[in-house]
Amino acid sequence: RDSHAPGRLDGEQLAWLAEVLDAEPDEPAVIVLHHNIEPEGGSLEDRSALWEIIGPRRQVKAVFVGHAHQYGVNEAQGIHLVRLPATGYKFSDAEPLAWVLALFDREGCTLELRMLDETSERNGSIKRLTWRE
């Protein structure tokens, strides 16, 4: 589904991001985008250029994205990739209608799935992310 509505960052936005990250190399950074940036199958057309910026900058700890309407967490180059669930329209019955409470600290982030169907056994499930060094 992602390939039907791709997104794109331009050189100006990418240069801005690199500048902001380079100004605070010792501060943990989390990036929030609309489109998926997974190296294989992501919907951001210029995700390779983005990865060239965020991959080597160790202060980048996680990227949160929407667009796919699927909840999940995985990792690429030590960076956590968090796909947030839909709150209104889901593409699959297996996916939750939910939002995610994210609690950040210096070592990582705790994610709690808050489902609209509070009776679901997945409601309140927790994932702990530990930041890369």
Explained architecture:
By secondary structure, this protein is an alpha/beta fold. Helices cover 16% and strands 32% of the residues. The protein has 2 helices and 7 strands, in the order αβαββββββ. The chain has helices spanning 11-23, 47-54, and strands spanning 29-33, 60-65, 72-76, 79-83, 98-105, 108-115, 126-130. The strands form 2 sheets. A 4-stranded mixed β-sheet has the order 1-2-4-3, with no helix packed on it. The chain has a 3-stranded antiparallel β-sheet with strand order 5-6-7, with no helix packed on it. Strand 3 and strand 4 form a beta hairpin. The longest helix has 13 residues, at 11-23. It starts with 10 loop residues before the first helix and ends with a strand. The mean pLDDT is 91.
Defining traits:
single chain; 133 residues; three-stranded antiparallel β-sheet
Strand order of the largest sheet: 1-2-4-3
Tell me the radius of gyration.
Answer: 15 Å
Oligomer: single chain
Tell me, briefly, the overall form.
globular
Q: Give the beta-strand count.
A: 7
Give me the number of helical elements.
2
* Strand-residue proportion: 25-35%
